[in-house]
DNA sequence: AGCGTAACGGCACTGCGTGCCACTGTACAA
DNA sequence: TTGTACAGTGGCACGCAGTGCCGTTACGCT
């Protein structure tokens, strides 16, 4: 305990204890199962007291996704520092890329977490809640941006939900494949295709031009579409 | 206790006990707060033992949204009994309407639940998980329907998420207003507008016609759009 | 060297959720 | 009518998550 007491004093020490706790939790969950692992087990494996565990994580589930708040803040920063005239589509795409970066930072841990969250119902539901936090963040920003537009709230809700869903689809496919380093670009490209499915700018009084432009884009996309191979 | 023991015997008795428990839970949560209400309190208020509570509900949170599974099954039935040639857009709209029906069945209870789930973080996260179950259901069905299409999975994910998000937007606006009887139609209409934002059928080899049709629709929509009032 | 501070471990407590069991009212058979 | 199988109930005890409290201990600062 003397060692542990010393470890937590400096900021580096705290980070080390935190890493040990996450590693112990993930390993124990993987080997012994989530339900059959107690907080005592995790704390003991990391060499700290049970009470200390709860000083690092709010709950047992928290040990699995401890960076959620940080990731959320990073995405929020992307929105806040964006140039006001930047179109919405590339911006939400850029925000999504930020999340990819976080997951790609530690692929092994990401894969372990992915498997756990898709096997344990309790963690699965928690994951849903986390994803919904992202959805709300996207939607909140878009709602501000579309304020005053006809159906602005609806467009914000739809685009926010759609982007997050596409993001998860791409991310989970990559994780299910074991998060290969050479698969990340395909993941990102898959995500970007959502942009083609988003509803465009609302039709105002004077932008019939925009509508015809959308048609042109659609025709161009049509021409370069290769026929499906079946 | 003799009374309670008798109540639970017949199917009607079980339904009655169930209703009493839900009513007691909602009322206690509303008056005393969710965290400050124990399962003992709920059981005592309903006149049954604490152990019996857990025979009716899996958890304390379950007492708030006990019909989730039923509602999910009802929506699944809409998808399964749908005619194979029915277009996707009206079908997912119809599935959404089904959920409206369920909420409109007991507006008072729906409003109480809405307020609770938006004030208590634990219930809020649980609500996210529930909503995600709907999203998965929608997406699963659409994925089967789009199987083989280019970007079929992506379209399914996007449309499923978008429809559920729009549904929640409309539903929550109605609930936040106190679920007025004369506001339900506006709620439904608001939900239906999501159909205009959904990506159309994928551009194949021979459906340039569909694209031009979408343009025509867009122009028509443009013409009947009243200018925003700001 | 002395002192304030902050993180630690341990303890006790509340409350959720579950396994177990004895009890009781009900339905059905002898 | 009496006996019996059964299903739902309440109570008890237990494990575990999460929290408040407190004495202890190591580190930084003066």
Question: If you had to describe this structure to a student in words, what would you say it looks like?
Answer:
Two copies of one chain form a homodimer. Chain A has about 230 residues and is an all-alpha fold. The first copy, chain A, has helices at about 1-5, 10-30, 40-45, 50-55, 70-80, 90-105, 105-120, 120-145, 150-175, 185-190, 210-225. In chain A, helix 2 packs across helix 3 and helix 6 runs parallel beside helix 9 (about 150-175). Chains A and B meet through helix 8, helix 9 and helix 11 of A and helix 8, helix 9 and helix 11 of B. Chain A binds a DNA duplex (30 and 30 nucleotides) through helix 1 and helix 4.
Provide a brief overview of the structure.
2 copies of one chain form a homodimer. By secondary structure, chain A is mostly helical.
How would you spell out the order of helices and strands of chain A? HHHHHHHHHHH
How many β strands of chain A by DSSP?
0
Unreliable segments of chain A (pLDDT under 50, ≥5 consecutive)?
219-230
Global Rg of chain A: 22 Å
- Quaternary organisation: homodimer
Number of helices of chain A: 11
Distance between the termini of chain A: 64 Å
Average of per-residue pLDDT values of chain A? 87
Strand content of chain A: under 5%
Could you tell me which chain pair has the largest interface and how many residues each side has?
A: A-B, 48 and 48 residues
């Amino acid at each position: 305990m003397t060692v542990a007491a010393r470890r937590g004093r400096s900021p580096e020490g705290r980070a080390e204890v935190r890493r040990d706790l996450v590693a112990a939790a993930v390993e124990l969950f993987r080997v012994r199962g989530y339900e059959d692992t107690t907080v005592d087990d995790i704390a003991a494996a990391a060499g700290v007291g049970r009470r200390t565990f709860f000083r690092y994580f709010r709950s047992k589930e928290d040990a699995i996704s401890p960076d959620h708040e940080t990731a959320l803040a990073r995405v929020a920063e992307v929105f806040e520092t964006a140039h006001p005239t930047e179109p919405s589509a590339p911006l939400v795409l850029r925000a999504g890329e930020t999340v990819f970066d976080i997951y790609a930072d530690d692929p092994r841990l990401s894969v372990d977490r992915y498997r756990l969250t898709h096997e344990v119902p309790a963690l699965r539901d928690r994951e849903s809640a986390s994803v919904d936090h992202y959805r709300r963040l996207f939607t909140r920003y878009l709602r501000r941006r579309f304020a005053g537009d006809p159906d602005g709230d609806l467009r914000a809700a739809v685009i926010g939900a759609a982007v997050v869903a596409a993001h998860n689809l791409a991310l989970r496919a990559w994780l299910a494949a074991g998060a290969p380093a050479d698969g990340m670009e395909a993941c990102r490209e898959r995500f970007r295709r959502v942009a083609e499915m988003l509803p465009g700018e609302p039709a105002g009084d004077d932008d019939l031009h925009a509508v015809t432009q959308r048609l042109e884009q659609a025709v161009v996309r049509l021409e370069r579409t290769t026929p499906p191979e079946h």
